[in-house]
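haha ok so turns out i had the wrong file open the whole time. this is the CORRECT one, sorry everyone. sequence first:
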Amino acid sequence: MKEKYKKILTLKRPELVEEIDPESGLINHLESKKVLTRRQAVTICRHPDPFKKNEALLDILYKRPDEDFDKFCDALTECNQKHVVSKYLVTDIPSPVPYSSDAVGDFEGLGIDVRREESSVSPLRECLQNGSLCLKDQVSGAKAQTVPNAVPSDVKGDKKLLMDSPKLLRLEDIVVKQCEVDFYDSKEQTAYKMNQVCRGKCLIINISETINQEPRQGAEVDERILEKLFRELHFDVVLRKNLSADDIRRLLADVLSDPRLVGDQCFVFFLMSHGAIEKCGGVQSEVVFGSDGKLVTTSEILEQISNCRALAGKPKLAFFQACRGDNYDESDCKSENHSLEEEEEDKEDDVTETDANPPGYVNLQDFIVGFPTQSGFRSFRNTKIGSWYLNAIVRVFMEDSHHMDVSAMLRKVNGIVSQWLPNTTDSAMILKGQIASLTDGLVKPYLYLFPGIIRERSSS
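then structure:
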């Protein structure tokens, strides 16, 4: 399947998983159109959960030839799901600015700008017809918002768009969209409870300085935007910096022993540091470094949170921004058009680095665990803009938490991060990508954050 169709299926995957009705005869239609084999159709139908059915279907469709994308759209239309086609498969990718002849919009939050021409055809449809996108190199406005080496000015054909780090998120940019009461009323019976004045604690630990390791430049951006986001999402944010390995353990123990945790509805944890795979207790483990250079395994952190009785049955979100090994993920974004000219100009003060990093975790009940990369691989951090993964989380959560559950948002984050390429002159990093990792152990159908909804007073 061509990259332009793959991009649609990747970017719109969370919405497609939620909105497609696989019980409408869709699977039979796709089998009759030879999009699915009999074995594939049976395998999909064995999943009891419609969301799992949709995920299995999209996984297969992603590998099918071009004509099967059209057959998929036709099958949806024949099964009274034309709204899914018009909303997600043949319309423009959402942009934060309204369409106009002189508008420059952020392309799906991916840090590139799409110049829209006046036309009766939607920009995405025109793109699919022409096989090209016209791109600008920087965001309109202040120089501080410039995206370095985002993309060549003209990427044609079916080559995947080359993208650098996301654009800079300033604190004033972070405004969380508010949930409608009708949406809350329609979802709250099937979701984890999330309606107090204060939802719970959000603990952020940022280790930007570690003995015998390079400073994690850009990490201060991560901490600021995360703190702003989760305050707007009704969490009590606790931020601590440059703790030793033992201090990390002690702080977490103190926070988890707070008697007020009994009244909380959720717990959120972020740890940002260098990381690696090291031998601990005779076992190869994914670890993060304290400021003293000593190690903390990610598994012991997750176990510590899991053992907190006050959080039993409540959703727990844990994110580790760190590398998980020394390998670079090979990107499929390679193109002869890639240029290093701007990287050479900016390499002194604006480059993409790595955090070498974390986890050895278990699929824990009521947990969501997120990592910026797959086990064994490095993660990327831009020295001015911050970490790719955390930037994407903030961007998606502020835009979509009013109508999308956390699991779906993190799948969207994974899709966004997978599109980026590093801005660097290091030959080992050029054209290398990053695929984030998500472990979802939630036992209720949904975890919505319901920003703006207050139905109960927090327990004191």
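Residues 91-164, 327-348, 356-361, 424-431 have pLDDT under 50 and may be disordered.
again sry for the mixup
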